[in-house]
Write a structure and sequence with these properties.
- The chain has helices at residues 2-20, 24-43, 52-66, 69-72, 81-93, 98-122, 126-139, 142-148, 150-167, 176-183, 189-198, 206-215, 220-230, 234-245, 248-251, 257-279, 288-305, 311-316, 318-334, 340-362.
- With 372 residues, it is mainly alpha-helical.
- Helix 6 runs antiparallel to helix 7 (126-139), helix 9 packs across helix 19 and helix 13 packs antiparallel against helix 14.
- The longest helix has 25 residues, at 98-122.
- The chain is globular and about 65 Å long.
Length: 372
């Protein structure tokens, strides 16, 4: 463990220095090659039975023998046809190993490409971009991405479109179809879409919305009862069952819930700190994109903090906080109105957080990674 920590302690700052000294074009090339490398590793993954990818492989193998109808008639995809179509595409390709490889590339490349594009567009310095990239790659659970498949990929793509929707200020109308399709890919996107729709309400209601999002888990049982009793729609019933199924007892069979909750709580605390620093800047003048991002991020933080006792939701939705928070990191480290001490505080916090998560994963989940 000491050797592992020493390597992480040495390598992370070196990568930061290398990235911060390169041009945006070279950073894009290095990032693209790194995404390819991670995808190649994912292609050669040998899954253990407790991983979700083991189930996906079994489904694809069965569909190769019986036919693609096996996927579409499977209980996992009846209410999620877009997910069924995605999984069945690897049946037609005749290669199950492409599933984690393609998913891995989509998850990492689309989001990081947005970060690089934003850095160029907003003229932020490359140190901020380097910090954002390091934090994203470190905190993202690589094994969770290449095993979980649907949730990480859906959140990544949703944030990709959300970036164009609210940060680039192109509007929800252009992306409503992708949003709906992603809801039919993984049910968690329904929550992210609802939060996006809440932005259409007057800002005067923000405090009430935040309070409801913070307290939502206290009335979860009542919400589920209403959903079940008011509709027979398969998708709504599936969403209700998901909320019921995500409980700590089920989670404890595959993870140390207390440890995971604690480490991710630290991540949320640092995210709140960065959000406060960004919004407490004197003389700040935000454009429409920044205002929308601030409101969305605030609502999302409230929902996630309100989910602290809902293990799966608390951990999985951290991906969206991680992705959207990267834009704040780039802004703070590039803005001249922030003092040198503030920028050093953020830089130190991000690097320590990145190293802590790398150590957490490499001594935990990543030890189960086997390659052929």
């Amino acid at each position: 463990m000491v050797v592992r920590y020493s390597l992480i302690l040495f390598v992370t700052p070196i990568i930061f220095l290398i990235l911060s000294k390169n041009s945006h074009r070279r950073i894009w090339i290095l990032n693209f090659l790194f995404c390819i490398a991670l995808s190649i590793i994912a292609y050669h993954l040998v899954p253990i039975k407790s991983l979700d990818i083991y189930r996906y492989y079994s489904q694809i193998e069965s569909a190769m023998k019986i036919g693609p109808s096996f996927i579409f008639n499977n209980v996992d995809y009846i209410a999620l046809p877009v997910a069924g179509l995605y999984i069945s595409s690897f049946v037609f390709l005749g290669n199950k190993f492409l599933l984690p490889a393609v998913t891995c590339f989509i998850y990492y490349y689309f989001v990081t490409n947005n970060m690089i594009e934003y850095s160029v567009f907003s003229k932020t310095n490359k140190k901020g971009l380097a910090l954002a990239l390091i934090l994203f790659y470190s905190v993202s659970n690589y094994l969770g991405v290449i095993s979980g498949i649907r949730n990480p990929m859906a959140i990544s793509l949703f944030c990709y479109f959300l970036y164009k929707d609210i940060i680039m200020d192109r509007g929800i109308k252009k992306y409503i179809i992708p949003y709906i399709l992603l809801c039919l890919f993984h049910s968690s996107i329904v929550i992210l879409l609802i939060i996006r729709i809440l932005l259409l309400l007057d800002k005067k209601r923000d405090r009430i919305i935040c309070l409801i999002l913070l307290l939502w888990s206290l009335v979860k049982t009542n919400i589920i009862a209403i959903l079940i009793n008011s509709t027979g729609n398969g998708f709504i019933l599936m969403l209700s069952q998901k909320l019921i199924a995500y409980d700590p007892n089920e989670a404890r069979s595959v993870a140390n819930v207390s440890l995971y909750t604690f480490i991710y709580l630290l991540f949320y605390i640092s995210s709140i700190l960065i959000f406060i620093l960004k919004n407490n800047m004197k003389g700040r003048k935000d454009n429409n994109g920044c205002i929308s991002l601030n409101r969305y991020y605030k609502f999302l933080l409230c929902f996630c903090i309100g989910s602290i006792f809902e293990y799966h939701i608390f951990v999985r939705f951290s991906r969206s906080i991680l992705i959207l928070g990267s834009f704040y990191i780039m802004d703070i480290t590039s803005n001249k109105q922030y003092s040198y001490k503030t920028k050093m505080l953020i830089t130190t916090l991000i690097l320590i957080e990145a190293m802590a998560f790398l150590l957490f994963y490499t001594t935990g989940q990543y030890t189960s990674i086997r390659l052929n």
